[in-house]
Amino acid sequence: MFHCHLKHPAPSAEERDYVELRAAGWPAAVQKDGLELVTAPLLNTAPSRPSESHSHHLNEFLNNLLTLLLPCRSRGRSVEEEEEDEVPLEKPVADMPAMASSHRNFLPPTLTSQDESRHPSPSPFHLSIPGGTQRRIITDTSSGYVAPKFEGKEKQMEAVIGTIEQSGFIPAGFIDDEVEWFYTRLGIDDMYFKSESVETIANHILALYAGKVAAFSRADKKLEIRLDREAVDHAVYIDTSTPGVSVLNGPQYEQRIDEKYLNDSHPGKAYRVETFRSNESLGADSAAQLRCYFVYQCQFEDPSPSENETDFTKIADKTFLEKTSENTKKLYADIVQAVVERTGPVIEMFEVQGTREKRLIIGYRQRSAKGLFSAMSDLYHYYGVTSARKYVEQFSNGVTVMSLYLRPISVNAYTQKHPPIEASIHQIMKEVSLLYCIPQNSFQKHFIRGDLSLQETIYAHCVSIFITHFLNRLGAEYTSLLGLLDTNNNAHTEVLTKIKRRLRQETFTAEYITEIIAGYPQLVRALYLQFANAHYVQTRGENDDFIPTLSYQRLRQDPVLKPDDLVNHIRTTVANDHQATVMESFQLFNNHVLKTNFYTPTKVALSFRFNPAFLPPLEYPQPLYGMFLVIGSEFRGFHLRFRDIARGGIRIVKSRNHEAYSINVRSMFDENYNLANTQQRKNKDIPEGGSKGVVLLDYNSQDKATQAFQKYIDSVLDLLLPPTSPGIKDPIVDLHGKPEILFMGPDENTANLVDWATEHARIRGAPWWKSFFTGKSPRLGGIPHDEYGMTSLSVREFVLGIYRKLKIDPSQVRKMQTGGPDGDLGSNEILLSNEKYVAIVDGSGVLVDPNGLDQQELIRLAKNRVMISEFDTSKLSKQGYRVLVDESKIKLPNGEYVPNGTIFRNTFHLKDIGVDTFTPCGGRPEAIEMGNVGKLIDEDGKSRIPYIVEGANLFISQDAKIRLEKAGAILFKDASANKGGVTSSSLEVLASLSFDDASFIENMCIKEDGTTPDFYRQYVKEVQNIIKNNARLEFEAIWAEHERTGRPRSLISDDLSYAITNLDEELQKTTLWNDVALRRTVLGAALPNLLVKKLGLDTIVGRVPEGYLKAIFGSYLASRFVYKCGPSSSPLAFYSFMTTLTKNINENGTINSLANGA
């Protein structure tokens, strides 16, 4: 019980309210003027007895409470800057600093100082910080919106009355009352009446009256009024609404507004929304009121400014400028400015002086938070809060600002679920960021009904995605079958592959997994507590003004079950084994998450760093070093790497239709793993291991690649960078326990986003921002692969190597290529080639000419980087043709009938058209696999295509490659052929690490006037030569090993990769690095000559991290040894190799012959 000893004989009404709050279970920790303030969690201890004091009024009590709870401006702003605000806000209370320092003494003893080194972020994500010690108070209690007075309102009312009289639907005696009620009692402002016609207003009143009449026919006499009217440029919705209640089976007007108007608002066509609640209830026995929504298409002063423009006279809607007060404009201007400067939502809260109303303002980029408007209602309803008014304003620079006028549903009815708004507003603010990440999750109904909290539903949503990808569906039976069949038998392998694919696709679908989880909210709650107990930061530094959240309080009150108890709880709750398998997978998720941004105050998507040890070795034989999963409102994405220091591209996968999306979801992780594994093998010549990132756009978000990429990158950075801004980027629980750096590069659909990622990493304070992404534009020191043909150079060396070994004249070779002149690989392959092209397949269709495609026309397309759809068909021979994907029912010159252009394009590479060389430079992974490779083998068991060089990653599955080689094809796989791009990227990074900032800008960055530094030009040429040399070394090694052993070249490629990477790792563990002469000589040979001449070896060694130099040392020695002596060479061979090497160093001081593979 709550005990309060006061001098006055009876407590005041305000004190009685507080007694009710404590009796409901709300905690108390701070004693202030004789009253305990709600600032600390309930620790299952008896409440302390306050000292005797005079009674105080509620306003003073709330003021003291707000002193400790309400947010402040960003710590980056000074008090002087606060005082300069033009918005009529009160200055910080004078005694605030003293209170801020003293209130920590009241925190539970478990909250001790852990970190005193955090500083404000140079780019905070929002202005207010929950738990801060400064208050932002609006002294103007009006809404801040004042519609210009409509002088013709009275005359219009008379006209409306006349129109309704003529209709005859409302009895004459009621018409005046109904019109007067509509005009004066609903709170509709004059802008509506000025904008709408007399007929439209009369129809709205008739519709509302009809709802009243309909209530008489109901048994419960319940009045439900619903009106929706939609025009081309505006809409009106009016609904019966009980404050604080979300209705699942109602008209869902807010979801409709989201879907029809807000989700896809953009500067070219944006909509603003005004919504408010009537002041009166609909009846004496009803709590329901009318909720009105008005949607208007925006009319901007400047419809197409820069996205960084912040001049309100240019970017604001004309109606907004006309209706809002100057103070409101200033307030919105601050929010818009912050959105322009930062990534993610800007969240701000204001008190309204003299009231308990809170104004929550959220700013964000348009189209970045689908469904947020309606989801916000569910959020504040969950905490017993309702809104009096809501506004959504759009700006032509691409910013959306949502303003919510929040108030408690009831003044006195406090419960643990519905705390006073002074406490709950901070939890709402924290959860806005979580809601922004995923506004509509798979378990939203549980949240609306109150069965699960927002955190629990979004946690369940994330785990359901994890389960979709990682639930082991093959089972013991598949393992047994694998042991019985011969994996070297192509027929057996084909059967196993089909069974594996079928089991993965059909055993546990995403819908089935969601259905199971939805049936057990009580298990979700228990499993979430296990997750939260591990990752919610429960102690803060004593210099941090941490205020325990409702989440923290709950975590301290509810028991967290031990793992074994959780398993027993699951198995005694579920109905069958399938349900147990799904629910127990939650623990797999919980046990392997090493760190997450789930509890970071501001975020744009949810990221999880996993220990990948749970992956079954049978399916993923090469163990991963690191694994990230990122989930946003438009996408899901992985990042996988095989070594701590690793490099690989980030690709965005789009889906042409729903079926393609379903296939992409099922294959996403395997594709990512295989791509990273391929990268690991092709990175054999460079210090970085292999990695890859794959971002899959949701089916309804195919046009949001940029937003998805930015959220993906920012959320990964959350887990790589230390926290620097309390209340914005707080510490996270890091079970990995050591710093991590990821090196990334461009891939499919991300080439134009690399500059943003580089500059964003710099803005977020990443010390390694220059090397974070390769492939950036030359102005940032990047070396574009496509412009200089870096990847194509290595592919071309393998093609030329075949011709050289077999003494073939390239001009007589008939060639087919997938990946057209619009792509990096495809365009450069065309520009470098002199074979006779007879077929090219790209995203637009198929181009064929048995007599040879016009070379000059292909070069024109390649230089312009356009698809074959722009090929001049007048330059085709009579036997030539072009079939585009959107064409159908076509008859080819040879008489063949093509019913569907897309199907023809997707399968054309399997046709026998009489080609000698095939270079896949684009296309989906495993376009050739065991199920269709037979089409490339003739009746005599011979490959229809003699020479294949795989430029595109994973275009041919490994087992299909081996089958083609057994059928006589000379085939070089992707990991060997297309490694030129990664070599260029690695040397780009080396330059960024070697130069200081000033020298880097001088020597590696293209100037604004387009001037290219001489060093840059020469360095690019040396990089190209290194790429070609490395490709020749590997080609010769594979050719020689095949001649010696007869082993398939695809397997030899893997053998080389494994031998080099394994030897590299072993060398880095030896003492060879300590041999200074050897170290300097190897580095001198491994590093680009131009860089060494420019800076000197000592300077490079002094600037480049030692771990990176060791990786260069090891990879160079290992690759040169394996290329020279073969992948299965003995330790004795390495001893001989090193002996010769040391002798050359002692005699000549160089190892130049080693660099050339001699």
UniProtKB/TrEMBL annotation:
The GO molecular function terms of this record are: glutamate dehydrogenase (NAD+) activity
Task: Name the protein family.
Answer: Belongs to the Glu/Leu/Phe/Val dehydrogenases family.
Q: Name one GO cellular component term.
A: mitochondrion
Q: Which InterPro entries match?
A: Aminoacid_DH-like_N_sf, Glu/Leu/Phe/Val/Trp_DH_C, NAD(P)-bd_dom_sf, NAD-GDH_2nd, NAD-GDH_euk, NAD-GDH_N
Entry EC number(s): 1.4.1.2
Question: What does the protein in this record do?
Answer: NAD(+)-dependent glutamate dehydrogenase which degrades glutamate to ammonia and alpha-ketoglutarate.
GO biological-process terms attached to the record? L-glutamate catabolic process
**Record's catalysed reaction(s):** L-glutamate + NAD(+) + H2O = 2-oxoglutarate + NH4(+) + NADH + H(+)
Q: What class of enzyme is it?
A: oxidoreductase
Whose protein is this, by species? Drechslerella dactyloides (Nematode-trapping fungus)
Query: What Pfam families does the record tag this protein with?
Result: ELFV_dehydrog, GDH2_N, GDH_2nd
- Where would I find the Glutamate/phenylalanine/leucine/valine/L-tryptophan dehydrogenase C-terminal domain in this sequence? 782-1046
Lineage in the entry?
Answer: Eukaryota, Fungi, Dikarya, Ascomycota, Pezizomycotina
Keywords per UniProt: NAD, Oxidoreductase
Q: Disordered: where is this region?
A: 101-131
What is the protein named? NAD-specific glutamate dehydrogenase
